[in-house]
Amino acid sequence: MEPVSMGIKSTQQSADPLPFARSYQLEALDAAIKRNTIVFLETGSGKTLIAIMLLRSYSHMLRKPSPFISIFLVPQVPLVKQQADAVKMHTDLSVGMYWGDIGVDFWDADMWKQEIEKYEVLVMTPAILLNNLRHSFFKLSMIKVLIMDECQHARGNHPYACIMKEFFHHQLQFGPSDLLA
Q: pLDDT per residue over 120-154, tens digit each?
């Protein structure tokens, strides 16, 4: 039996963002592919597009059953859905969404393992990643792409700053350890 079109229009778009990218966005993408990069641009200038293009460029490393993931950090709960929807719309990667009110603070290692096996991009608030790193549910070595939206918050005791101080800078200074490998 042949499939029949029911005239149902898909809400999922797979428009390729590259033709719409401006030269500065492509330059930022190229820099981010080569090295850790902070992209400082005005609101509305297309930082999310750069993040999506970066995820697309690493998608071959993230596809399940790969053990690797991408983490997209956003500083506020409403941005979790917004950024997850953007990634879903412009990539074919599987995307999970996480924030405190859904009970993730009570999840154990097995629950997080299931999420990591299921999703390629995990969009969350930074406190969740920080807690998972501190509990060794996540290791930096499993994260192929780490996007920190609004990284200007990475100061003092903000979770962005703690992630960098406790895990990233520690790994740079001392090299991978059993805790991070």
A: 999 999 999 999 999 999 999 999 999 999 888 88
- Six-digit token string for 2: 């042949």
CA distance 51 to 36: 13
- Give the integer Cα–Cα distance in Å for 14 and 33: 22
Three-state secondary structure along 42-61? CCCCCHHHHHHHHHHHHHHH
Rg (CA), the chain: 17
Q: b/e for 142-176, b at 16 or more Cβ within 10 A?
A: ebbbebbbebebbeeebbbbbbbeebeeebeeeee
Nearest in space to 144 (alpha carbons), one of 167, 165, 121: 121
Q: For the chain, how many residues are written?
A: 181
Dihedral through CA 113, CA 114, CA 120, CA 124, nearest 10? Answer: -80
| pTM: predicted TM-score of the whole model, two decimal places | 0.83
Classify 154 in phi/psi space as left (phi over 0), alpha (psi -120 to 50) or beta: beta
Strand partners, 143: 69
- β-sheet bridge partners, residue 73: 124, 148
